[in-house]
From TrEMBL:
CDD domains: IMPCH. GO terms for biological process: 'de novo' IMP biosynthetic process. Residues 1-148 form the MGS-like domain. The lineage of its organism: Bacteria, Pseudomonadati, Thermodesulfobacteriota, Desulfovibrionia, Desulfovibrionales. One of its GO terms (molecular function) is phosphoribosylaminoimidazolecarboxamide formyltransferase activity. Transmembrane segments: none annotated. This is Phosphoribosylaminoimidazolecarboxamideformyltra nsferase. It comes from Desulfomicrobium baculatum (strain DSM 4028 / VKM B-1378 / X) (Desulfovibrio baculatus).
Length: 197
């Protein structure tokens, strides 16, 4: 699909700079917002209407937040190919709703390294759900837009303004490339840290 209408977004970010304005823009465009704990709390405090991931999954965040987005209600909605009628029928049969935009940035593992934490503490700063959502949405850029950091918010908003609330395939592919570069660098940093400790 060339032009993707943005109707439903999931937001889960560590770096919350610019988040309020971006989420407010999305909501003003009629986009349903879904979010995780701290991100949702910030957006609700900013006066925005945001569904919690737990409401979507029907399952609470568990293991101290280690498991919250790793659920079919999230990942089927991200990975469904909107051009494949069997995918869309599966979502319908299982009462799952697709996502159109995934806005995620990762736990700051570099900061954990700078703090010279013990391994047991440092590994808690290794993001699992975030990279999984980023990689899933980047893989599925034909059907989903991924926004991997605040530096892309302005471009995303301008794209939507220019395209009647849609994001172009070219933009989505550029964001996929940026996302895979980011997750690759994140994994490299973790690999180097664990190799020397």
């Amino acid at each position: 699909m060339n032009m993707l209408p943005i109707r439903r977004a999931i937001l889960s970010v560590t770096d919350k700079s610019g988040l309020d304005d971006f989420a407010r823009f999305l909501q003003e465009q009629g986009v349903e917002l879904v979010s995780t704990g701290g991100t949702r709390k910030k957006l609700v405090q900013a006066g925005l209407k945001v569904r919690s991931v737990s409401d979507v999954t029907g399952f609470p965040e568990i293991l101290g937040g280690r498991v919250k987005t790793l659920h079919p209600h999230v990942h089927a909605g991200i990975l469904a190919d909107k051009d494949d009628s069997t995918h869309m029928q599966t979502l319908k049969d299982l009462r799952l709703t697709p996502f159109d935009l995934v806005c995620v940035n990762l736990y700051n593992f570099a900061e954990a390294v700078r703090q010279t934490l013990e391994d047991k503490q440092a590994v808690e700063q290794i993001d699992i759900g975030g990279p999984t959502m980023l990689r899933a949405s980047a893989k599925n850029f034909h059907s989903v837009a991924v926004i991997p950091g605040p530096s892309y918010y302005a471009e995303c908003m301008q794209e939507m303004k220019d395209n009647g609330g849609c994001l172009s395939l070219a933009f989505r592919k550029r964001m996929a490339v940026a996302t895979f570069a980011l997750t690759s660098e994140y994994d490299r940093m973790i690999t180097e840290y664990l190799s020397r400790s």
